[in-house]
Request: fold
Amino acid sequence: MTKPYKSSFKMRSITTAATMKEIRTEMKVTAAIKKRVEWMSDGNKWDTITPGRVPPTGIKYMVVDVETHDWKDGGGSRDGSIVEIAWMVFDRDMKCLESKQYLLKPHGYDKIAQKATSVHGITTECAVENGVDSDLVFNEFAAIVSQLPDDGSVIAHNMEHEDSIFKCNLNKEQQVLWNDAPKCDTWNIKLLKYLPSEVREKYKTRTLGINLVELYSVVHPKDNDIQFSHTALVDVKMTWAVFLYYMTNVKSYNELQWKEDYLRPMIPSWNKDGRMRQIRKFNQN
Reply:
């Protein structure tokens, strides 16, 4: 029996929509890869790892950012394997002691998800050819984390995301060091009150944090050279600038500190397909 015309038209519409989605994804991937190539042609490059290297001493602050290559859908945070990591470390006088950015060979999964490439522009081929061994990088990272004093801090923009990522990537011994390290978060919406009044008005309906590029444009309005966001070291530099801004404005350093239990309990929400998922909301008091 021949299917009704209406049903046939609907099927063609679904196919067309799927095709359009694939085309949009391909366009995003192409644009992100081009952006990464521009970053490379601008004189930037990834560092090479030196096994057994002794990290600098006198560290008080470490700012970190990661890009990942496989994202789990359906949760409040994105877990995955790190493909790019960058950090800068500073002493008590806010002097930069070290700046590193590493590209990691794919680990955990053999192929970088197209969705991830569409954000940071790193392809599987690029990571395989130019990346370094992830274990060596994580050993070096953990060695620096272990040096942080009690009044120091690891700093990130959206520490919940970074915390989730590192717990997926570090081994058990490294996770102990990471869990014990004091942490600061520049993403917390409770810090909105320290921004200019026009900014508070613009973002007053936000329930989560402010995008890093948006926030950086507030604290450094004359700096327009932020076209390479989602490049780990660029994001680290922006996060440090935001952290310094808050350090000169917050009433208490405790307002910048991050703890796993500083969020409200998980509350139910719903995916587009009708399945329940869990999301977190910040306490805005």
